[in-house]
Amino acid sequence: MRAFPTGFRRAMPDAPQELQFPLYVKAPLVLLGLALVVFTLHIASDLIFPIFFAAIFAIMLHPVEQWLLRRKVPPLLAIALTVVLGVAALLALLYFIYLEATQLSGQLPMFKTKFFHTAQVVEQWLNARFGITNQKLMGYLNEAGSRAAGLAGGTLTAVSGLLVAATLLPVYIFLLFLYQKRLVTFLTQVFAGRQPGTGVDEVLHESKAAIQSYMIGLLIEGSIVAVLNVGALLALGIPYALLLGVLGALLNFIPYVGGLAAIALPVLMAFVTKDGLGYPAGVVAVYVVIQFIDNHFLIPRIVASKIKVNALVAIVGVLVGNAVGGVAGMFLALPVIAILKIIFDRIESLRPWGLLLGDEEATEKPAAEGTAPRRRPLLRNTAARPIAAPGQ
Known about the structure:
Elements: H1 6-10, H2 23-43, H3 45-70, H4 75-105, H5 108-130, H6 134-166, H7 169-178, H8 180-192, H9 200-236, H10 241-251, H11 258-273, H12 278-303, H13 311-344, H14 351-357
């Protein structure tokens, strides 16, 4: 069998040439891919979101499992103890909220009486000031009540679905711990194949570190906000300050939207249990101060430094997450965007998307002489070298 000339063998391309499409073809394909991803997440949200939550909780609990393994605890027992510890902490928080809510439910008759009295005062003021009669007001209230009932029904349905899915979280977390090495090997072989140095291990490590730092930062920030909320409500004399402060801190985990709900609950409590408008106004004032401290001091130093995502992408991502998966989608929006940014930054053809998602400046200075080379991207566009003619 005749061998190829030496020059021809040297000129063989190292990688297949990448297909190039014009913009009017590439843009519709990108939009179609995004639409298919969003549609798939919306249809299969009951299956996909619990797995996402289990992966996030597994990443948070991974240091506990590693600590137990370093203490010579058997692997299965270490995984079981880690899952039990995480579930116990979550159940303790839910039990505390249940106890506080049970005490609050005993005051519902008083709240109802106060609400009807306030409604009569507001009705008289509106009639005297704007000429709104009782019939018009009742029509507005009935319309608002029907909308609120629909919203409450949807919220209860979503919460019940989350509770059902939450029963599978310990199982998912246990299995993710049990098969973590197999999953890492699978991802490495799928995206890297047999080629070394493609950066898949680096992407997985940085994604894990980003989510872990983000969630720990959220817990620290939430604890500080809860202390500030409870202290402010106690100083104003608002009933059930502990419950409202903790709920406000939990709602604050939902980016850009949860803060509004966190303010609404204590304002409503002050309006129902206190005379006059001074206490509701005081609650609004102290919560605005707390939100200012949270947004300008706590989040930039504790949370935002872990995930470099700009505000526009974060808001759009939260809204898309709400449309796809409700509250669960809003909570998962930022970690998913952070992982996408880490991946995009290491794929040469997708770096503009990583720049769009990020919050850093779009400046890239050439490396000075003697400095370390830039990190290898996850995938590299390698154009085929020209094939030399035989004998050249």
